[in-house]
Amino acid sequence: MKKIILLSLGLLAAAPVFAQTSVCSGGSPVGGGTAPNITYTTTANMFVVRAFPIKCSANVTAGARETAVVFGIGALSTKGKSYFQGTSGGGAISGTACGVTCTPGQEDTGLNALVNAAT
User: Fold this and answer.
1) Which of 20, 32, 33, 44 is most buried, taking the most CB atoms under 10 A from its CB?
2) 3-state DSSP of 14-76
3) What is the CA radius of gyration of the chain?
């Protein structure tokens, strides 16, 4: 029993730690800033090492995930019919159909799994 508990704790400790950030929501920066501008800030021991400016566009929602070795982003337009995601692990960007229109939050669908797969 002790071995199972130790193994479980070891696997939990080895799981990637995600820094989750909502970047833009409908053209407004999330977490401060003056619309439409925001600065992506850094988190210690994560992929992004320097802050950088972001300009949020109207009707756009974006979210980011990062670990120590991978950065991922998801974005959509609430007027569009697809959301897009990509990571620094290979640089590929994929699009997924939302249906009739996209709703905020769909850009985060599976983003953790995508970043984890790129690790």
Assistant:
1) 33
2) HCCCCEEEEEEECCEECCCCCCCEEEECCCCCCCCCCCEEEECCCCEEEEEEECCCCEEEEEE
3) 16
Whole-prediction pTM: 0.75
Residue 81 belongs to what H/E stretch? none
Cβ-in-10-Å burial (0-12, 13-18, 19+) of 27 comes to middle
CB 111 within 8 A of CB 93: no
> Cis peptide leading into 36, omega within 30 of 0?
yes
Q: What is the pLDDT of residues 79-110, one digit of tens each?
A: 889 999 999 988 779 999 998 888 888 998 88
List, in sequence order, every residue forming a beta bridge with 113; answer none if it has no partner: none
In terms of residues, how long is the chain? Answer: 119
99/54 Cα distance (integer angstroms): 28
C-alpha of 17 from chain center = 13
Residue whose structure tokens are 């977490």: 31
